Amino acid sequence: MEHIRFGVATCELGWVLAAATDRGLCAIELGDDPAALEARLRAQFLDAHIVRDPDFGHWMEQVVAFLNAPQRALSLPLDLRGTAFQRRVWAALREVQAGETVSYAELAARIGKPSAVRAVAGACAANHLAVAIPCHRVVRKNGDLSGYRWGVERKRRLLEKERNG
DNA sequence: TATTCCTGTCCTG
DNA sequence: CAGGACAGGAATA
């Protein structure tokens, strides 16, 4: 059975939950209610043994510091879960620098599938590692913010924070 | 602006 | 295996 540790804390965007397996971070969730965040985690990993560990090797404070200043890279291992296609999208996403944005069409082009625009959007939406996989930096080609798993308002604030350094 | 069509991947029955 | 959902995009009126 898989073993997952998690902790919750507050950051500039509200509550944050970070969870990790022995391979690395497997979830970073944002929200307004810590209990709801835990419930979301347990729903995602139904067959895992999940325990609360508010510190787990200072990872929580690193995650919170990263969320408050996403310009600096997060140097923690990630335990990515996804199909081959999703991993390609996420890898391309991590090439996008803080303060920059790309369109879904541009992202699709970068992974060699320029017509798979909607599929790319779906892969972004499937990401569970908020900010570490910067899906908030993907916007519509016409400049609209489009959607965000953790709320368009948080997406807006993240981009604003990154733009202003 | 709104409607319509095309699109790739994932999920469900 | 079929059908539907979707954080898109372009063409049309």
CATH superfamily of the largest domain: Winged helix-like DNA-binding domain superfamily/Winged helix DNA-binding domain
Helix content: 25-40%
What amount of the residues lies in strands? Answer: 15-25%
Structural class of the secondary structure composition?
alpha/beta
> What name does CATH use for the topology of the largest domain?
Arc Repressor Mutant, subunit A
Low-confidence stretches: none
Number of strand segments:
6
Query: Briefly, what CATH class of the largest domain?
Result: Mainly Alpha
Q: Which term fits the overall shape?
A: globular
CATH second-level architecture of the largest domain = Orthogonal Bundle
Side-by-side strand order of the widest sheet: 3-2-1-4
Distance between the termini: 42 Å
Radius of gyration based on Cα positions:
15 Å
The overall number of domains is: 2
Taken in chain order, the helices and strands follow as: EEEHEHHEHHEH
The chain-level mean pLDDT equals 96
Write the layout of secondary structure elements.
Blueprint: E1 3-11, E2 14-21, E3 24-31, H1 34-44, E4 49-52, H2 59-68, H3 84-93, E5 102-103, H4 104-110, H5 117-125, E6 138-139, H6 152-163
Parallel strand pairs: 1-4, 5-6
Antiparallel strand pairs: 1-2, 2-3
Helix pairs in contact: 4-5
The chain binds a DNA duplex (13 and 13 nucleotides) through residues 83, 85-86, 103-105, 108, 113, 115-126, 135, 138-142, 145-149, 152, 155.
